[in-house]
Amino acid sequence: MKFDDALLKLGEFGYYQKRLWILLQIPAMSVGCFMMMLVFQMFKPEHRCKIPGYPNDTFEVQNPFHAALINATIPPSEDILRKYEMCSHYKGVVVDGSSQGGYNYYVNNTVRTQCDDYVYDKSTFDETFASENNLVCDDALKTSHAQMVYYFGVLCGDLGFGMLSDYIGRRKTFSICSVLMLASALALAWAPEYSSFVFLEFTVGAACHGLFMVCCVLSVEMVGPSKRGVAGIPIHMFFATGLCYLSGAGYFLRNWHYIQLAVAIPCTFYLFYWWFIPESPRWLISKGHYEAAEVIVKRAAEVNKTTVPDKMFDANSVEKVKEGHLWHLFMSKTLFFRTIIIFFNWMVISMMYYGVTMHSGNLGGNFFLKFFILAVVEYPANGSTIFLLNAMGRRKLLSLCMMVGGVACMCTIFTVLYGGEELEPLTLGLAVIGKMGSAAAFGVVYVYSMELYPTVVRNGGMGASSCVARIGGMMAPYIAQSGELIGGKFGQAFPLGIFGASSITAGLLCLLLPETLGRKLPETIEDGENFGKDADEPLYENQIKMVPADVEEGDYPDDKAFL
Hints:
Layout: H1 3-10, H2 15-25, H3 27-41, E1 47-49, H4 64-73, E2 88-96, E3 103-114, E4 118-120, H5 129-132, H6 141-168, H7 170-188, H8 194-221, H9 228-232, H10 235-253, H11 256-264, H12 281-286, H13 290-304, H14 333-359, H15 367-376, H16 378-392, H17 394-417, H18 424-452, H19 458-486, H20 488-509, H21 525-530, H22 540-545
Antiparallel strand pairs: 1-4, 2-3
């Protein structure tokens, strides 16, 4: 008997699974905050050189004398979207005098020198890590380096904790990630300098996404085939709730230290999950721990008010499952081809999802409002996929999401290059559609990938997929910042064009994968190789309907006769 067969007797998505499912969705809110926290921490405000001998209290000045001094001292920017050159000033000397301001300042308007210190615009944030440590001008790429290190941490966490989860179980891995995430996130709020900051970001990234992967897999492994879409997609809506919380915390606190604490402290709650979530029965069965799996299934049946046989799993009745390893996905031509396409889709979705949000700061308008809008649109994006997953199927829906998002991003090239400020709302609207496409695709690709990977390598395969996605995440800040380096309107349009073209390509490739709607999850490597090859195989949901409603245990000598 396979676990999907046992779910027929237990209930595909009974009260026990729903209660567990709710608990597993909540950590996604914290993960959402951490995954986008660097957008706040590394926000680079408008800035100018600090003028020698001048109070430099504010970025914008009202005193006409001081304003004239700044205009004379700081060269005009060559970027048509900026007023001042942000990284240099004209060389000058302060001489004591009796003129207004108490000094005379003589400027050489032909010789430039690099800024020694900066004055920042505080209309958006009082202080970010970037402004606190002057990560601008020559050090501007350090912000992208920090984001790259964070997503590299996510990559390592996905791979390491994904494989660890397949070896020691989902529950133990969840607890390890919870402790590590809380400790590193709290320590990060007091990071004294850049090196310790990026090290702690690496740790937070590894722990938080390792936790997220366990929640995703455990949520789906406990429900039946016809309910996997309903159970697998909403976790991304909880992720979006975390983004909404982050935008609110940023708006009211305005200081990166306080925002970090506001996100880290609630993670204490996850330490108590050890007493509330069980191990995955599906994993226990794959490891031969039949008695432990039966205890959990019987407890679930009691809560669901259903009955199950006294003895469901043992060495003789359970189909023998050959142990699998991650590299088995690359030893078969069929699995290799499918895995590469899945990997590419994960990479592009991640690059577009995070890149559009990172680049939104360059599109003009209120920072917090844009961030909030880009978070809120994930609700309809993921909500619609819950219904469309079963109506359209995984493959067509994933392709549609990628194509719509990609085309929308490509269209921003025209609104930016051939429009002015009057078309900024349209540009933002197209960027929002691009974000919606990638957000919906993220939800679909999680469910789709989990259904394609065999049980024996499912968590490892999901971890590897998410690892590849982090390559896209590591590329995203550099692509987003390339617009700043290019400058002007073309710089605004360039990143979105890259995101759009990549998304369209990935959407076309995923049409080459098999459909998983209504099929049994593959358990072994052999199941994975044969999956989708038999076009006449009846849907599992139709097989379920074939079972008589009044069937009792023992009515059939072999349960598989009607399964």
